[in-house]
Amino acid sequence: METVKSRKHPSAVIGWILIVLGFIFMLNQFDISIFEFIWPIAIMGVGIFLVVRWKRFHSDPSVGAIDDFKFLGDTVFKDYAGNINGAGITHVFGDIKINLSKTQMADGESFVNASTIFGDVDVLVSNDIDFHIDASCVLGDIVALDKKHDGLFQSASDQTPGFTTATNKLRLNISTIFGDIRIHQV
């Protein structure tokens, strides 16, 4: 884990490269079958996802304590016992596991934004933390606050009962394209 410094985020650069590559491939595919046309669209989709995800994360000034990007591989934030005031985790291929069961909340509202294209997102949150969840996936299941949403193009928005009146609270923004999202209180 690192403190965010003022630097360009690699997912935005990779995102733009994928958009350009997808556009170049698409220009060469005008008279080709649908199957061959899907790859350029998929590449552009991944690029757009990374660019939009990066801009959404960096448009919120309170986010920034944890910043992690991986093209390939898993990330595990295990037993994070620090004082969290924001996190942004972006993956292309890989799972994200975040254990906030021992975390102390910073004053006010904190954010955890986690996105992956191919992979699962698992979050453990302490029963002492009031949180709001916004989750979405294209193909996979969402399990949050003992509610399950499964199938295609799923989204879930829910919160713990004390979220609106809590002085220290957590907002979870979780998304995946191909994978499951699981948020559990422990």
What is the compact description of this entry?
The chain is of the alpha/beta class.
How many beta-strand elements? 12
Mean pLDDT across all amino acids: 76
Low-confidence stretches: 1-8, 55-64
Backbone CA Rg = 17 Å
Query: What class would the helix/strand composition place it in?
Result: alpha/beta
What percent of residues are in strands?
over 45%
Largest sheet entry: 10 strands, mixed
Please write the string of helix (H) and strand (E) elements.
HHEEEEEEEEEEEE
Helix proportion range = 10-25%
Kindly describe this structure.
- The protein has 186 residues and is of the alpha/beta class.
- It folds into 2 domains: 8-59; 62-185, no CATH class.
- Helix content is 23%, strand content 46%.
- It has 2 helices and 12 strands.
- It has helices at 10-27, 34-58, and strands at 66-72, 75-77, 83-84, 87-93, 96-100, 104-105, 108-118, 121-125, 130-144, 147-159, 168-178, 181-185.
- Strands 1, 2, 4, 5, 7, 8, 9, 10, 11 and 12 form a 10-stranded mixed beta sheet that branches.
- Strand 9 and strand 10 form a beta hairpin.
- Helix 1 (10-27) runs antiparallel to helix 2 (34-58).
- The two termini are 23 Å apart.
- 33% of the residues are buried.
